[in-house]
Write a structure and sequence with these properties.
Layout lengths: L5 H24 L1 H21 L1 H7 L15
Helix pairs in contact: 1-2, 2-3
């Protein structure tokens, strides 16, 4: 999914609450993994600020500490 679309931004908005719950739980259950995810987000933010404005725009709305999301289709 291209996040730089209306449907992508809607998906990000829809994911904000559940992703916040998951990220909060991770920060309690596995602080090192949470910190590593936050560090990854910070590195992506620094890189995209200089190299990819579209990614930077999407990262401003990214609702989770995880740096990617995978889905399966049936």
């Amino acid at each position: 999914m291209d996040l730089d679309t209306e449907s992508g931004y809607q998906w990000l908005a829809d994911m904000t609450f559940p992703a916040s719950i998951i990220s909060g739980a991770l920060s309690i259950m596995h602080l090192q993994l949470y910190d590593a995810g936050m560090h990854g987000i910070e590195l992506l933010d620094d890189w995209s600020c200089k190299n990819d404005p579209r990614m930077q725009h999407a990262l401003c709305r990214w609702p989770t500490v995880f740096t990617n999301v995978a889905t399966t289709r049936q």
